[in-house]
Each structure stands twice: as structure tokens, then as C-alpha cells.
Amino acid sequence: MAVDYDVIIAGGGIAGISTAAALREFGWSVLIVEPGQHTDRRLGGELIHPSGLEALTELGLCGAEGFGGAVPMRGFAVFPGAETTPVSLPYASGRGIALDHGGIRAAVHAASESFPHVTSLRGRVVGMRVDGPLMSVAVRLSDGVRQMACRLVVSADGASSAVRSYAGILHTRKPISTITGYTISSQNLPAAGFGHVFVGSLAPLLVYEIGGERARILFDHPLAQSGIDPAEHRESVATAVPHAALRAEIRDALATQSGMRFVCADTIVACATRGSVALVGDAGGSCHPLTASGMTIGATDALRLRDALRGTGGDIEPALRLYARRRRAPQRTRLLVSSVLHEVWCGNGPESQLIRRGLVRYWSGARERRDSMSILALSDVSFVSAVREMLLVICHGLVATGREWSIMRFPAIVRGAAGLAALVIRQMSFAMRAR
């Protein structure tokens, strides 16, 4: 049977274009279907870790220095409580970059225009079915709906993927919080070249540069705290910033900007592939943006798909099975880490306090900080490594808490230990469901 395109990719963001770049070596014709979203009206990924930057460089979507106007990133700086001195978590090797979402999308689109055998159309995939040995994909364009035959469909249309549903791949979605973003200048950031995480009593506050002497602020309003008025919640979170000039600038942004919002959710898919359909990036599962892993997973998934196809000589179905196995550990790792950190930094129970103490104590060592950052940044994608780090943090928390043990506090310690055990079991079993 004749095909219109060998591959149809739903979604023209970094995951979709990275996949198109990864498939160039096979000489296949590729169609990217992109609905053309307004990037200036929505929040999206803006920070890329070293492994993601290396993937984009290998795919020819940027140079070794990243995109024009991007800010080099050396890691994260965590400000625990009201401390003005941060805990620096540097990348073990390499560096990342940060740039506003619209700038990243424009850069990868410009790079993809020179790719041979790649066509981009403004539209949306609205249906899909198996048609003998091929896939029949319904694409809504400006002049109506067209049926197109292809050999492989790639779903790169984000956490709310419609293509995933058309393929019959089940998923569970657990809303976590509402994220609201604002823009300020970068001149008052205390740790230049680092992403900032201010840990307060209610929720973490993320601040990072996005180029052009600007910085993005992300307020997190957990659904568990939905009873607190959003404006009061943001004001309370802003008090966790110990630097007066930065705190004043954040409050000015709250007073003068409406902010951009989205509902953040953990999304777990039943499988990453089915038949001749592959899920890449957040379409294959998403998590809280606290670890900023979304853009990196989109680029590295493209390499995993390419390498799986290489390993099978371009035979699609066995390659997709291999791809699904290889992405399982990275997906579980990012879900476990982001879920645990978000729950710990948004909670005030004894188990959260124990892990917070453990993190501060554990991060007193340079090697421990690098090891943690390797997992946070997906340079080390081993699920075993993530579990080991979590257990080490718990041990450090127990030691730190043990210094304060007394007969009078014994009931509280028992409750804290029980809560900690429940947290560990809940989060590990949740992460193990990722495919």
C-alpha cells in the first residue's frame, strides 16, 4: 500500500522536532502536525539539563553553546527556610541552558527547516485507526480533514495528548497543583547561573533566568492547600525569599501582572508504545516541573527511539518494544524524584521535616550534591540510584532528628516514622506504575 508519509508526528514542540531530527538518518519522509499554539500566552519548559543539551546538539538542533540568547546554567541553588546562603547543587559534568519557551520553540523550528524529507503543516490530528499494515491518520487542516497513511505515528503532543487516546493507550492523571508564572528582571538573583528554589512553609518557589536579562518566577499552589486564597498563598510563599530586593521585585510582579497559569498533574501511561504508535516526551507521562526535566526527556526520548530503530535495522514494531523498555527507568526516576520532593517541600508533617533535615545534612558533602544533581537532571536515569539516594537522605534525617530524641517526644517520633514509611511506600509504588 502507498503511504503519504513514512512517519507522522503529532506536535511540533521540542519533543516532536527532536524526533524528526532523530529519524533523518533513515531517509524516511516525515510530517509534523503542529496546531500553532501562542507561546507568549502559556507556560512551557524553559530549562534544559546537560543531557538534554547534548541530545539537541547531537541532533543538529543547536550548537554546543545552545540557542542564541540562552543563559548558561550550572545547576540549582536551594534556599532552605529563611537561609540567605544556598545549598549549591552543581551539575556533575557539562552545563544546561535556560531560555524563554517561545525562544526555544522558534530556534528548533528554524533549525528543522533545513531537514530533508521533513514537512510541517498547521493542523491537528483528530483521529487514527489501523488500516492493514499501515496507520490511517485523520488530520484537520485549514481546508478540512484529510486521511493520511503512514508506517509510524509519534505522539509528541504533550501531557494531555489526544493521539495517546486515539491509540487506545490508557492513562491516569492525578492533578497536583496550580502553577502561576510571572516575569521579573534577573538583576537581583543571588546565585547567577543557577536555578533558584526557595523552600518556605507552604510550597517551593522556583526562579530562573530566561535570557534578555529576565527571570521567570513559578508559584506553586498545591491542591491540598486549595482552601487558601491564591493571592494570600502567593504572598506567603514570597516571604520565603530572604533577599529584600528580589522579594520586593516579586511582590511588584504580583501586583502588576496577571500571570500565566496551568494545572500541573502526574500522568502515568499504561504503555509507551502500541502497535506502530510511540509516545515521546510528556505524552509518555508527565510530572511536576520542580525538577525541570520535561524538555530534557523530550530530547533524550528522540535519541532512544533512534537508537532502538538502529538496533533493529529500522524494523518498527520490535524497535518500539525496545524503546519502551529503555525509557521505563528514566520515566520512573523523574516521577519518583519530583513527587517526593514536591510532597516533602509542601508538607509540614514530621516525615516531611525529617527528610528536609536529611537533605540539608546530606548535601553538606560535595560528592553527595553532585550525585543528587545527576539524578535530578537525568544524567543518571537509574531507578535504583534514585531509590538509593532517597534512602541515604532518610538515614541522614534520622541521624539529625535522633539528636533531639527524648522520652517526651517519643510519640511524635513514632508518628513521624509511620508517616515516613507511608510516604516512601506510596511514592515508590506510584513511580513503579510508570511505563
Q: How would you characterize this protein structure?
A:
It is a single chain. The protein has twelve helices and 19 strands. With 435 residues, it is α/β, with parallel strands linked by helices. The strands form four sheets. It has a seven-stranded mixed beta sheet with strand order 6-5-14-15-16-13-17, sandwiched between helices. The protein has a six-stranded mixed beta sheet with strand order 8-2-1-12-19-18. The protein has a three-stranded antiparallel beta sheet with strand order 3-7-4. Helix 1 (14-22) packs parallel to helix 3 (101-112), helix 1 runs parallel beside helix 7 and helix 5 (230-238) runs antiparallel to helix 6 (244-256). The longest helix has 31 residues, at 316-346. The radius of gyration is 22 Å and the shape is globular.
